[in-house]
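Title: Prediction job returns without error message
Component: structure pipeline
Severity: low
Priority: P3
Assignee: unassigned

Description:
Job completed but the reporter wants confirmation the result is attached to the right record. Sequence as submitted:
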Amino acid sequence: MSKTKIDKAKLDSYIQRTAAGDRDSFVKLYDYVRKPVFLFALSIVKDYQTAEDVLQESMLRIAFNSDKYTRGTNPYAWVMSITRNLCSDALRSPTKHDLPLDDAEFVSDSKDIVKSTEEADEVLTALQVLSHQEREIVSLYIYAGFSQVEIAKTLEIPYTRVRSQYKYALEKMRKYFNEVDNYENTKKYSMPIKGVRANTDSRHFGEN
């Protein structure tokens, strides 16, 4: 699976117009980031329903705090920072977040993001062998499309640590799948699943 590609100018515009009260722009913003936000949350909280709750709460917080976003910075990092914080909250105290009726229309069912229970299970299986921080690094790279420098800033750790942990995480995933039957492509040094396909060659891990 290739890195998620986000048009930062477009996302910046959606956030600004949401802050100005444009509900249509918020719907567009939601449609634009819902998949990477949900998949990132799923990879961290490792529970489908909790990931849906994180997606919903993330989008509401983005809407409510859109006026605090600084124009022309990194809108995607801002979105994913909100999501990451909510994932941390969910892991500490996993509870459902009830949506205000007025905002319920913004949050559609995320089941079409992960097309089947089997695919959702594959995402979890691919990352279950990693530590929490390793999952964050791999998920921010794959689902958020972050470079190692952006990941380091988001996680507040040295970028050299990000790079080494990413490489180590992929090695752990490869080793795991080499030991599991029915994963015929593992000998090709790639992750043979739809949800998390990551080449184990760390040279693909961008620095910028």
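Comment from assignee: result matches the submitted record. The CA atoms of residues 137 and 166 lie 6 Å apart.
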